[in-house]
Amino acid sequence: VLTLANNERIPLTSSMRLLFEISHLKHATPATVSRAGILHINPQELSWNLYVTSWIDRRERQTERAHLTILFDKYVPRCIEKMRSSFKTIIPITENSMVQTLCSLLDCLLTPENIPADAPREIYEMYFVFACVWAFGGATFQDQ
User: What Cα–Cα distance (Å) separates residue 91 from each residue in 66, 138, 139?
Assistant: First the structure.
C-alpha cells in the first residue's frame, strides 16, 4: 500500500514497482527511507562523455561516428563552459540534460533523408551547430 501525503492509500500488487528520482531526501520520512532502496549517484561522477560515447556507438555508419566524435570534442566542452560562465537558464538544467537534448535533436536531424551516406563533415557540422544552439540555448533567458 502506498500512502500519499493526503492520507489517500493506493493498493499495489506484488508485481508493481515504483521508481522515484529525487534531488534530496529533505521531506522523506524515516519509514520511507527504511522501506526503499536508495541509490545516490553524484552528478559530478557522471560525465556527459559517457552518454555521448554510448550514443555515438549506436549510430550505424562508421563515417558518421567519426564525424560526430570530432564535432562533440570540438563544440560541447566550449558550449558547457560558456553556459557556466556567461549564461543563466530559466530553470536549472544539468550539463548531462543539455547533452542528452543535443543527442535527441541529432537523432531527429541526422536521418538518411537529410544526410546521404557520402556526406562531408561540413553537412554534419551544420546540423550539429543548429542542434547545439537549441540544446544549450533553449532554456536561456530571451535577452541572452
Answer: 33, 11, 7
Burial (Cβ within 10 Å: 0-12, 13-18, ≥19) of residue 85: exposed
Q: What is the 3-state secondary structure (H, E, C) of 84-113?
A: HHHCCECCCCCHHHHHHHHHHHHHHHCCCC
Q: What is the pTM of this model?
A: 0.72
Alpha helices in 8-116 (DSSP H): 30-35, 48-57, 62-86, 95-109
With cell 532502496, the residue in question is: 37
Confidence of residue 35 (pLDDT cuts 50, 70, 90): confident
